[in-house]
Design brief:
The structure is a homodimer.
Chain A (H helix, E strand, L loop, with lengths): L1 E2 L10 H8 L2 H12 L3 E2 H4 L7 H13 L3 E6 L2 E6 L1 H7 L4 H10 L8
Antiparallel strand pairs in A: 1-3, 2-4, 3-4
Chain lengths: 111, 111
C-alpha cells in the first residue's frame, strides 16, 4: 500500500479546502467518504453520472487540498476523509458543511 | 440605483457558495464586505494585487453564487454580503468560515 502525496496538516489552506468542497460532485464524494471510511474510489463514485477522467480530477483536487488521503492498494485506490486534520486546523468547518450537504437534495450529477 | 441579478434565497446552492468562498481573494473580499457594508468594489479590493478583469470575475462569481448583492450607484458598484440569506439557508456556514479566514494569515494575493 502506497500513499499518494498530500499536504501536511499545518499546510492546509482554508480557501483550498473550500474550493475542494465547492462542487456538487466533490461535496457528495466527501460526504460518502465520511460515511464509508477506507472505501475505494469506484465504490464511492457509484451511481454518479461523471466520466472517469473527471472523477480522477475531482479526487486529485480533493487530495491536493488536504480533504482526503488516497492509498494505492493493488488495483484499487482507497479514500479516507482527513476529518481529524481538518477539525484540528479548521474547527467547526467540515461537520456543518457535510451536515448541510446531507440536508440538501441528493445530487443528480449536475451543478 | 439598480441591483444586478442574483439568485433568490431559496435557490442558493451549498456547492456554489463554497465555490465562491473557495479562493483566497474572494474569501478576503467576503471578509471585507462583512466588515464594511455597502462599500464599493474598488474600496474593498484596495491593496489586493489583482488585475481589474480578474476582480470583476471574482465579484461576478460571488454575486451569481448568492454570496453578495451588487448595486450600481452612478459610477460605483456597491457590495453587500448576503449574510442573512446565507444564515437562513445554511446555518453555521458563513460565520465560522469568515472567522477562520480572519484567523489565517492575511492574504497577499497569492493562493
Amino acid at each position: 500500500m502506497r500513499q499518494l502525496p498530500e499536504p501536511a496538516r499545518e499546510s492546509l489552506r482554508l480557501a483550498s479546502v473550500l474550493h475542494a468542497l465547492g462542487d456538487p460532485i466533490r461535496l457528495e464524494l466527501a460526504r460518502r467518504a465520511r460515511e464509508t471510511p477506507e472505501s475505494t474510489c469506484s465504490a464511492l463514485a457509484d451511481g454518479l453520472d461523471v466520466p472517469m477522467s473527471t472523477l480522477s480530477n475531482h479526487w486529485r483536487i480533493m487530495r491536493e487540498a488536504g480533504l482526503i488521503s488516497m492509498t494505492v492498494d493493488g488495483r484499487h485506490r482507497r479514500i479516507r476523509l482527513r476529518a481529524e486534520d481538518l477539525r484540528d486546523r479548521f474547527p467547526d468547518l467540515l461537520d456543518p458543511i457535510l451536515r448541510l450537504a446531507e440536508a440538501e437534495a441528493p445530487t443528480s450529477g449536475t451543478r
